[in-house]
What does this fold into?
Amino acid sequence: MELNNLLSGPPETLLPVDPAAAELAAGAAAVDLAAKYPTSSLAWSVLAEEALKEGHTIEAYAYARTGYHRGLDSLRRNGWKGHGPVPWEHEPNRGFLRCLAVLGKAAAIIDEKDEAERCKTFLRDSSATAADVLA
It folds into this structure.
């Protein structure tokens, strides 16, 4: 007989391989892959990180917001119920987590304090490792 631990939290959500991952790894441009695979949080995260690095905060915010929402859609399709772990250690989760991190950073830069704090908390609640790595 299997016993359920009633104190355990929701199960980890593990996303499938991102459709743009292989082509990004092979050197394809993220802008082309975001157009080819608009559901790819990974492609959007690369665009967001590049924009933020170049000082294009509004573009970074927009790219990150797009990838974040695409990631939420994917999480829900894969059993996520609005909370619970989304482990950084599972590589297909990283596109979503990276978008969430950039969204929070860009929000902080444009002084959208509530959004920045919400993203920071959501990232830490989803994956403490991601929050540390992406800080």
The helical segments are 21-25, 30-36, 41-53, 57-77, 94-109, 113-126, 128-133. The CA atoms of residues 108 and 116 lie 5 Å apart.
